[in-house]
Design goal:
The complex is a heterodimer. Chain A is mainly alpha-helical. Helices cover about 75% and strands about 0% of the residues of chain A. Chain A contains eleven helices and no strands. Chain B is an alpha+beta fold. Chain B has three domains: about 160 residues, D-Maltodextrin-Binding Protein, domain 2 (3-Layer(aba) Sandwich); about 130 residues, Dipeptide-binding Protein, domain 1; about 220 residues, Dipeptide-binding Protein, domain 3 (Roll), CATH 3.10.105. Chain B has 17 helices and 23 strands. In chain B, strand 6 and strand 7 form a beta hairpin. Classes of the chains: A mainly alpha, B alpha+beta. At the A-B interface, loops of A face helix 8, helix 11, helix 13 and strand 18 of B.
């Protein structure tokens, strides 16, 4: 009984604040402790990425102090120094912008390109669908990391090229997701109604189909950023991403794992922790978003 | 039957009880996979380490020096004009396949290396197995070669006639490339000989498991110091840290390719010992002289003053490195002790740049076609003895350069591509180095500077230097040659032809159970003296 009463109270309370779907989803999101944790972590990293370059000037090209190399964490260097005597904390903070920027922008490109292709395929069907989805299937047939490595190996290492490679391998997921959303939605009554009322195809797609297929895409975007961070780190680790001396998490890890045997744990621990934390944050947020945006799950 | 079984049991028990048991196998951890095992066509140290166990040459290097001592040739004579060499071969030596080693076999080997119409030479070259070192050490093939005749003048006497005297001739012959192979086996296996090597060495080839290990077995009939272990396994462990892990775990008994920061780890481990190879290696930075900016000597001088070599050597070589002032390492007899190196001074570097017209610093270069492009500083993707951690060293040097106003972009590529680009003169500014093969200054200087304007050397054209080096090659009195090589180093220094950064004494780590390992400056040690307790 109590639960029923609680649910009714909750519903009434929600009703007081106006029950828009977005508001409802947000309310459900912040109600979950997992999501709050994810949000905090993600917000922290985003903040660091945005603020660091504004408040601290760093020239990676001239940064080296061989006299102070491999200093363990101290007050002056809270995360210690690396093999060239560079402050690891400073480089990690500046690397956040590089690594996160790479991940976010590659996912943004992939999401826009991928879902446009998916909408086109789902709406136009026939040959367009066939050809587009065939291409996506080819891309999906390769393990994503391997494909990204192959692409960068072909067009040359560097930040811009790894951005391109990560975007490319992330496109098929969006194409598939948005296509299936269109296919499911176009049979729905409200779409049929809109069409029979004389709405043009383009209008129906833009104002009915696209907005209604956004939730799965939003969830996917968050999860993709986690994947892209790992991907960027993998490319950096292999020396295919950011070129030295640009700080980037994967490259920092690659430069330092060799010190495992000589006991300088701090050189690889902190970059590794940064990768792990950020990926964890985006994954938690993504999972929570999935729950929050799925109306079928309901409350309780 | 029962009795002998019991006797065996007792014998085994007794053996176990009598303490330090002699292990039957020596396992060495290598940095990679051998290319192949035909010594005549390889150039890399990973392959040559293995072929040195299987093959012998006419002569070899003594202990940890590059002095020459007899091997398959027991003694030799040279004519007064230095052109005719007569070698007396050791008797009763057989290749592992039973073929006797005689004058005919040695002559056959020389002809395979030297004559482009020799059936096996032609066959191998067609398949891309080229005799690079023969070409480099003896001037080329057929008529181009400094060798004009090789003949058997008795069953065990070989006479080699040269067109001109060649001072480093014996030292050249002691290189791993000129180890003698069984003619019968080469003919039998053809292009596959590199996978089925047959020589006269202390160990014979058993098996090569690709990407894992090469297994060798003691040759009981070996003419020299009999092997102390029954088997040698050379295991391929690419990663330096992983290899050290295998050594600590007792899976291997010895290894090369130590991370500089692991030198201290090995020193402090009571079960391990650290051995250093005598220095015979120099790492350098080379300019491409097609780049307009590098044609100005003041710019090159600015580079020389900008880089803090001492700080780099102190910090990044694990205590085994030395500051290089010239191309030859200090162990060579042509080394110039009087030479005064460039002093480290970023201010002086800036001043020189300003004088050269780059008051704002240098970050772009002009190619031959007049187009501006960013100044790319190429660094090696692979660790070599002269630059054990090339990326770190490159970053440190680039930071030094940047502090003096020279802003470079670091870039690397796969090792084989890197070497190829260098060979074709496509790298504007790059790091590389050299490990000596035979202890002769000629092997350092002439290989690089005897062909002025070569694309391989970044089109560096110093004709006076080349003339001097070619003259030194033909002299036979060492003191006179040494004087010319010292002069050559001074010329190279005055012209800032190249920036010499560091020499290294490449460290080896061995288990304390392994005894008798003699480190060699060429990097290829003989394993027959090694014992594992």
């Amino acid at each position: 009984m109590a639960t029923v009463a609680g649910a009714v109270r909750g519903a009434v309370a929600a009703g007081d604040r106006g029950r828009t779907p977005t508001g409802e989803a947000w309310r459900r999101l912040v109600a979950s402790p997992v999501a709050r944790a994810g949000l905090v972590v993600v917000a922290a990293f985003v903040l660091i990425a945005m603020i660091t370059p504004a408040v601290h000037d760093y020239d990676a090209k001239t940064d080296a102090n061989l006299m102070a190399r491999l200093t363990p964490p101290t007050a002056a260097h809270p995360f210690g120094t690396d093999t060239l005597g560079r402050d690891i904390l400073v480089r990690l903070l500046h690397a956040t912008r590089v690594s996160l920027g790479l991940a976010v922008s590659s996912v943004a490109i992939a999401a826009v390109v991928g879902s446009t292709l998916g909408f086109l395929a789902g709406y136009l069907r026939r040959q367009v669908d066939l050809v587009l989805m065939f291409c996506m299937d080819i891309l999906l047939a390769f393990p994503a990391t391997l494909l990204a490595i192959a692409i960068v190996a072909m067009i040359g290492p560097g930040l811009r090229n790894s951005l391109f490679a990560i975007s490319l391998v992330s496109i098929p997921v969006y194409a598939r997701l948005s296509r299936s959303a269109v296919l499911a939605l176009r049979e729905q009554d409200f779409v049929i109604a809109a069409l029979s009322l004389g709405g043009s195809g383009r209008r129906v797609v833009l104002s009915h189909i696209v907005p209604n297929s956004l939730p799965p895409l939003i969830v996917q975007t968050t999860l993709s950023i986690a994947f892209a961070i790992l991907e960027a780190a993998a490319l950096g680790f292999l020396g295919l991403g950011a070129q030295p001396p640009t700080p980037e998490w994967g490259a920092m890890l690659a430069d330092s794992y060799r010190y495992f045997t000589s006991g300088a744990w701090w050189v690889f621990f902190f970059p590794g922790a940064a990768i792990m934390l950020s990926v964890l944050g985006f994954n938690l947020l993504g999972d929570a978003l999935r729950d929050a945006l799925d109306p079928r799950l309901g409350r309780e | 039957m029962r009795l002998s079984g019991l006797a065996l049991l007792v014998a085994v028990g007794f053996h176990v009880m009598t303490g330090p048991a002699i292990a039957q196998t020596f396992v060495f951890g290598a940095q990679g996979e051998p290319v192949q095992l035909d010594p005549a066509v390889i150039t890399d140290g990973i392959s040559s380490r293995i072929t040195r166990q299987i093959f012998d040459g006419l002569v070899r290097y003594r202990g940890s020096t590059t002095e020459v001592e007899p091997a398959l040739a027991e003694k030799w004579e040279v004519s007064r004009d230095g052109r005719v060499w007569t070698f007396e071969l050791r008797h009763n030596v057989k290749f592992h396949d039973g073929t006797p080693l005689d004058a005919a076999a040695v002559v056959w080997n020389f002809e395979r290396w030297w004559k482009s119409n020799h059936a096996q030479h032609e066959n191998q070259v067609k398949a891309g197995q080229t005799f690079e070192y023969w070409e480099a050490q003896f001037g080329g093939f057929d008529d181009k070669s400094i060798v004009s005749k090789v003949e058997a003048v008795g069953s065990h006497t070989v006479r080699i006639t040269l067109k001109d005297p060649q001072a480093p001739f014996l030292a050249n012959l002691a290189m791993f490339v000129f180890d003698v192979a069984s003619p019968k086996a080469v003919e039998k296996w053809g292009l596959e000989f590199g996978k089925h090597p047959v020589g006269t060495g202390a160990f014979q080839f058993v098996e090569w498991k690709p990407n894992q290990e090469v297994i060798l077995e003691a040759n009981p009939g070996y003419w020299g110091v009999k092997p102390r272990v029954k088997r040698v396994v050379v295991r391929n462990i690419k990663d330096n840290s992983q290899r050290l892990g295998a050594l600590k775990a007792g899976e291997i008994h010895g290894m090369e390719g130590l991370n500089p920061d692991d030198v201290a780890v090995v020193k402090s481990d009571p079960s391990l010992q650290l051995l250093l190879r005598p220095t015979n290696t120099t790492g350098y930075i080379a300019f491409n002289y097609k780049v307009k900016e590098f044609q100005d000597k003041r710019v090159r001088q600015a580079f020389a003053h900008a880089i803090n070599k001492k700080a780099i050597v102190d910090a990044l070589y694990g205590g085994t490195g030395l500051v290089a002032t010239q191309f030859q390492p200090p162990s060579l007899w042509g080394y110039n002790r009087e030479l005064k190196d460039f002093e480290y001074g970023p201010a002086r570097a800036r001043e020189l740049l300003t004088q050269a017209g780059f008051a704002q610093g240098l970050s772009e270069i002009t190619g031959e076609d007049g187009k501006k492009e960013p100044l790319i500083f190429w660094y090696m993707s692979r660790s070599r003895p002269y630059f054990p951690n090339p990326k770190e060293i490159a970053e440190a040097m680039a930071a030094d350069l940047a502090k003096a106003g020279i802003k470079t972009q670091l870039q690397t590529t796969e090792w084989a591509v890197y070497l190829d680009k260098r060979k074709n003169g496509q790298l504007p500014l790059y790091m590389l180095g050299w490990t000596g093969d035979n202890g002769d200054p000629d092997n350092f200087l002439c290989y690089f500077f005897c062909q002025p304007g070569a694309a391989r050397e970044g089109f560096y054209a110093n004709t006076a230097l080349a003339d001097l080096l070619l003259r030194a090659q033909k002299l036979t009195i060492q003191a006179e040659r040494a004087r010319l090589y010292r002069q050559a180093e001074q010329m190279l220094h005055d012209d800032v032809g190249r920036l010499f950064i560091a020499n290294n004494q490449p460290p080896l780590a061995l288990s304390k159970r392994a005894k008798g390992y003699v480190p060699h400056p060429t990097g290829s040690e003989y394993f027959n003296t090694v014992e594992v307790q």
